[in-house]
Design a protein that fits this description.
Layout lengths: L2 H91 L4 H8 L3 H12 L1
Helix pairs in contact: 1-2, 1-3
Length: 121
């Protein structure tokens, strides 16, 4: 036998010995992938549903909180504007100048004209 024939025989023997080992590894990897796919399917079916529900509940709570804060802001702005109008009426009733009332309350000139008309009655 020549060196080439010996080398080919040796390579064939090595391949025949390593082939079953490689098949075992591939079989084991296939089983692991199957297990991972099953776990992923379980998570997508039931495992993530509670987290999604909790996120939806948190979003609903955040929306309710935002609406409540917006309502409180509107009430506060109304109360402040109501107080400013009362103050402007009182200042107009005492005869203070329109510039002083505007400077003190932040009310516009057209609003002050309306307040002066109200204060006269």
């Amino acid at each position: 036998m020549t060196h080439i024939e010996l080398a080919l025989t040796g390579l064939t023997t090595v391949c025949l010995l390593l082939m079953p080992v490689a098949l075992l590894f591939l079989h084991r990897i296939g089983r692991e992938l199957g297990t991972l796919n099953q776990s992923a399917a379980k998570l997508s079916e039931g495992g993530l549903a509670p987290a999604t529900a909790a996120t939806a509940q948190g979003a609903a709570t955040l929306t309710e909180l935002t609406d409540s804060v917006a309502e409180m802001k509107r009430d506060f702005e109304w109360l402040v504007s109501d107080r400013m109008i009362e103050l402007a009426i009182n200042m107009a009733g005492t005869g203070q100048s329109q510039d002083r009332i505007a400077q003190h309350t932040g009310i516009s000139a057209s609003e002050l004209d309306a307040i002066r008309k109200i204060a006269k009655h």
